[in-house]
C-alpha cells in the first residue's frame, strides 16, 4: 500500500470517527457536557498498536487527537456519574465502598466504554442481558459482565484484545491515562479477578486514580487494584473499533443492533436475562 493511500485511509478513518463522536456528543449531552478531570500531558511512550491489525494509527500516545480526547472524556464522564449506582438502571446511590451485586466491575467498565462508542451496537443504557451475550462484529459472543478467566466465556478483556482497541502493558501506572482500563490479577493462579477505569493520570503528587464497582469506588488509588496490569487504549481507538466493525461485517454480515430498552430504566430493579448472569468468582473486589 502506498504512503499516499495509507494517509488517505487514515484520514478517512479519522473523519468517520469524528462524525461518530459529533453524533455521540449531540445524543449524550449530559455525558459530554464538560471535559473530564484535567490531567497532565501523557507520559511519552511507544504508541500502542491494536492486536492483529496492520493499520497505521494517525496519532501517537504523546499527542492525543481531539477525537481521542473527546472519547476518553465520554468514558470518564460516564464513570464519574455512575460509580455509586445500585444497578445499571437504578440510580439510587450507595456509599463509598458499598457492595453493588447487581452492577459489578466488568459491567461498569463495559458501559463506560460503550458511552464512548467503543462497543459497536451497544449503548450504555442497553439491558444487562445485551452485555451478557454481546454479539460482536467478528461473530463471537462476549460476556461483558465478566472479567475473570472462564474457558467457556469470552470476557471483557478478550473483547478489548480481539477488537484491537486495548493493549496490555503490564504494571505501568506511569503510562495510565483517563479512559484506560486496569485489570487485577488476584484470582486463582494469578488470573484476572477485577477491573476498573482510570479517571485521572499520574501526577507529581498522586498515583493514577480509578473508578470501580463492587465495591463502589470513585477516584481510588491505582495501587489498591494490585497486582494489576494497565490495558491502554490504542491511539484513535474509536476509528480502530469502527474500522474493525466494517471489516468484520464484510466477513460475517451486518452487526445487528441491540433492541432498545423499554421504559425509562432509571429507577427500577435491573432486568436480568433468562440465562444466568455470572459475577466474577475469583479474587477480592477492591
TrEMBL record:
Lineage here is:
Bacteria, Bacillati, Actinomycetota, Actinomycetes, Kitasatosporales
Q: Where is the composition biased (Low complexity)?
A: 40-49
Protein name (Swiss-Prot/TrEMBL):
Putative amidase domain-containing protein
Ranges of residues in domain Putative amidase: 72-218
Q: From what superkingdom does this record's organism come?
A: Bacteria
Q: Which stretches of sequence are listed as region Disordered? A: 40-67, 255-286
Keyword Cell membrane on entry: no
Keyword Signal applies: yes
Q: Please state the span of the N-terminal signal peptide per the UniProt entry.
A: 1-33
Keywords assigned by UniProt, alphabetized: Signal
